[in-house]
What we know:
The chain is an alpha+beta fold. Helices cover 20% and strands 40% of the residues. Zinc ion binds next to loops.
Amino acid sequence: MSQAIEVLKEEVFDCKCGGKGVHSSFVLKESIPHKLVSSVSCESCGEKNTTEDDFIKLDFGVEIMCDFTKENGNTLMAFLNTKAETHLFDVDSNGNEKEIFSFNCDRANVDCIENILLRGKDTLLAGDKNQFKDAVARLDSIIESKRFKMKIVDKSGYSKVCPPGLEYSQIQEKNFEELNKMDPRVVHKKISCE
Length: 194
Ligand SMILES: [Zn+2]
């Protein structure tokens, strides 16, 4: 077993308030990707700032096409890394696709597809209600019908959609080919990370 948290460095600096601040960085190895967490905090003035980055950069990105037009995929689990883009499409009875809208992932997380859709809806509702009225109505209809296509684009290469019945912790070490064989509705494809 390796350490879940590996402290890289910790240093004390003079905060602008006159007190002593501490800058620390550590590697969180809880799951893949390991995250490099840097934090600055000052006990005197309470200033605190934390940033997270992938500790190991991959030399590829990933595009994940999910075709849930024939079978509901809402209960599948997915890991979306920070900055992953989710594009949602609805498909009419003639098979024509139309992109409804896209949104970005603020913070790496594991969640089920339905909650990703609901987060997308929250993003829309937080924006201009008139401008996004049609998109909200179409999103509601795909949440209801559970028949849609979704594309996830992640330059970090870490995002993955889990096959049915599996948690992210069970598939985080699997490569795209292995995952693609386990669920024909979901296709992971390497793309450039540029
Ligand atoms: Zn301070």
